[in-house]
Amino acid sequence: ETGVTQSPTHLIKTRGQQVTLRCSSQSGHNTVSWYQQALGQGPQFIFQYYREEENGRGNFPPRFSGLQFPNYSSELNVNALELDDSALYLCASSLMENYNEQFFGPGTRLTVL
Amino acid sequence: SQKIEQNSEALNIQEGKTATLTCNYTNYSPAYLQWYRQDPGRGPVFLLLIRENEKEKRKERLKVTFDTTLKQSLFHITASQPADSATYLCALGAARQLTFGSGTQLTVLP
Q: How many contacts, defined by CB atoms under 8 Å, are there between A and B?
């Protein structure tokens, strides 16, 4: 069984740029959720994807967008990067039928300069 | 607004003792509550889930209680070991979304 993987591990961008982060869900999982974790804080829910559609969204602006592909992998896109976007971005996969058991990937550390 | 508070940013205990971590919440009616462990630079790892109609759950050396009247969950690690040192996060679940607390950093001293 393959766990959740994320790429890249680390990323440095400058303010105003755009970034795409990638996530491969655990084998057999059909739902992917994305979280932002600032230093010293708990993860904050960005959105969730199920069957290639957004299935719930937290309090994040539209410049945070996502995609889910037929193989259930997912992308998080952030446009017009701001300094406050610097954080660890986590994805978590689950089965919609058992959505409260989420398995997290190792995260992508994004630094915005 | 919804608020989740976890007790003290850091907790130090002696090896072999029981660690007790607290999670309090306001303006929230979760269907379930979860506890996660997070090591530095890693994603959270699921430990236990307890539903709103359950009072207590156990798994090996771990025990969690959930009091929806007090709006509080307690997380216990018995016979603690240095390997238990990590940040522990509580998360409240409703409508397929998880809302996390900021975590408690636990250090078990040998």
A: 54
